[in-house]
Amino acid sequence: MTDDWLRRNRANWDDRVRVHADSDFYDLPGFRDGACTLRGFELDELGDVSGKRLVHLQCHMGQDTLSWARRGAAHVTGLDFSEAAIRTARQLAEDLALDGQSRFVTADVYDAAEALRGERFDVVYTGLGALCWLPDLPRWARVVAGLLDDGGVLYLAEFHPFTEVLGDDGKSVEVDYFDERGTTWDEPHTYTDGPPLAHTVSVQWQHPLGAVVTALAQAGLRIEFLHEHATTLFQRYPVLERTGPAQNPVFRFPAGHPRLPLMYSIRATRW
Ligand SMILES: C[S@@+](CC[C@H](N)C(=O)[O-])C[C@H]1O[C@@H](n2cnc3c(N)ncnc32)[C@H](O)[C@@H]1O
């Protein structure tokens, strides 16, 4: 089944986009009204993007991509293999009069260099449920390095792979942390509110943190930091407490409860 991963995953994502575009979770009307979808720690850690040329790999419907444009990036490019996602992103950009400052391209992330005709960027931004869709991390890291200008920065924020080791109860050890072979899932619903999917099968890969860092270092990037976060963006375990604004909630362990890493972020430079 994993041999057929690209076709399966694209059909699954085209289907998810149909549901996500109407979901409260992604709240496209709120975004049109000016909401910023970027998380506070991302804004702090990537810093000022004014005047930068930024490419967002696996950009989904383009909300994060366009949020960087709203924060002053000179030009943003979003890339995703789902034609439905790219169509939605282009419409959003047009509605917000950001189409002169943005571009959205349909391509497999592994074909990004060809799809973007060898263009180099100041910033590659990606993550938040991106790496689990990619079977080959060293190849992904080489793509990232190839998209960066000298001195350019990769900023990646992801869900921590350790969170997959524990079951949904947050207590039982259920999954092998080191198993990168890929798992076929058959799930009737996506992670947002909305109707069931028609294409329910997907293939996903879990990558240990060491594999991510090693792939980036071996692609020639210098790691500036690897931060592990004790907060996440959804109710991963029942014990987590929801805090923060309604549209951008943060989930954390209650005071006094032993904490696990729930997310991580990496900033790396091409030199
Ligand atoms: C969970 S979303 C990324 C999170 C995104 N920041 C958001 O707005 O929520 C994962 C995205 O990866 C894209 N994707 C998955 N595999 C891909 C691939 N091989 N090449 C390009 N895009 C891919 C999907 O179409 C989807 O839009």
Structure annotation, total helices: 8
What is the strand content?
25-35%
**Which whole number gives the mean pLDDT?**
96
Which spans have pLDDT < 50 for at least 5 consecutive residues?
none
User: What is the molecular shape?
Assistant: globular
Give a description of the structure:
This protein is α/β, with parallel strands linked by helices and about 270 residues long. The protein contains eight helices and twelve strands. The mean pLDDT is about 95. The protein has helices at about 5-20, 30, 40-45, 65-70, 85-95, 110-115, 135-145, 210-220; strands at about 55, 75-80, 100-105, 120-125, 150-160, 185, 200-205, 220-230, 230, 240-245, 250, 265-270. It is globular, with a radius of gyration of 18 Å. α1 packs parallel to α5 (about 85-95) and α7 crosses α8 (about 210-220). A seven-stranded mixed β-sheet has the order 3-2-1-4-5-12-8, with helices on both faces. The structure holds S-adenosylmethionine (SAM).
Helices and strands, with pairings:
Layout: H1 5-20, H2 28-32, H3 40-46, E1 53-57, H4 63-70, E2 75-80, H5 83-95, E3 102-106, H6 112-115, E4 121-127, H7 137-147, E5 148-159, E6 183-186, E7 201-204, H8 209-218, E8 221-229, E9 231-232, E10 241-243, E11 250-252, E12 263-270
Helix pairs in contact: 1-5, 7-8
S-adenosylmethionine binds at residues 9, 13, 58, 60, 63-64, 80-82, 85, 108-109, 128-130, 133.
